[in-house]
Design brief:
Elements (H helix, E strand, L loop, with lengths): L6 E3 L3 E4 L6 H8 L2 H4 L10 H17 L2 E8 L3 E11 L2 E8 L8 H14 L6 E6 L4 H9 L3 E10 L12 E9 L1
Parallel strand pairs: 5-6
Antiparallel strand pairs: 1-2, 2-3, 3-4, 4-5, 6-8, 7-8
Protein name: N-acetyltransferase GCN5
Pfam families: Acetyltransf_3
InterPro entries: Acyl_CoA_acyltransferase, GNAT_dom, N-acetyltransferase
Length: about 180
């Protein structure tokens, strides 16, 4: 079991373990088709979806294998989530940001906080993330974290909210940092 901090702070953000009271804030961005477009999870269509997500988050924190933080900005409020999932191979990170937080460097700031926390663990030799080939903004974040594109994984994962979603897996680019 790996232990991660319940809160992380950056110059502009506070990252914290979300709870049931955060369901409406999460629904506000997880329901947005543009925000959910490249995600591996289906867009939230009602508040129950956000509550189910929060149940999964709580289980992940309890297991010590999967951590998800709510990203809060002092003036914008809850603007997204960033997660880190541990396995024998290392750690996988992922993030999602509300549309009104795009283009301000907030995704990089949040991802860097979690990336640095995972990288500081002595037993972590690899941190990776997959990225849809059409998601250029996410590619830039991963590259700015110091990750390298290792290649294209053909038909790797479904993106149920993509414009061409038909239930078949899409290609992804695999990015990684290794110690």
């Amino acid at each position: 079991m790996i232990s991660m901090p319940h809160t992380l702070t950056t110059p502009r953000l506070a990252l914290r373990e979300p709870g049931p009271a955060d369901a409406e804030a999460i629904f506000a961005f997880a329901n947005d088709p543009e925000v959910a477009r490249y995600m591996t999870w289906a867009r939230h269509v009602d508040l129950d979806d956000s509550h189910d997500f929060l149940d999964d988050v709580a289980a992940g924190w309890s297991s010590g294998e999967e951590y998800c933080w709510l990203i809060e900005h002092e003036t914008l409020g809850a603007i997204g989530t960033v997660a880190c999932v541990f396995s024998e191979q290392g750690a996988e990170i992922g993030y999602v940001l509300a549309r009104d937080a795009w283009g301000q460097g907030l995704g990089l700031e949040a991802a860097r906080a979690v990336f640095d926390a995972a990288r500081s663990l002595d037993d972590i030799y690899r941190i990776w993330a997959s990225c849809d080939p059409d998601n250029r903004a996410s590619m830039r974040i991963l590259e700015q974290l110091g990750m390298v594109c290792e290649g294209r994984l053909r038909r790797w994962s479904e993106r149920p909210n993509a414009d061409d979603a038909d239930g078949t897996p899409r290609d992804v680019f695999m990015y990684a940092w290794v110690r």
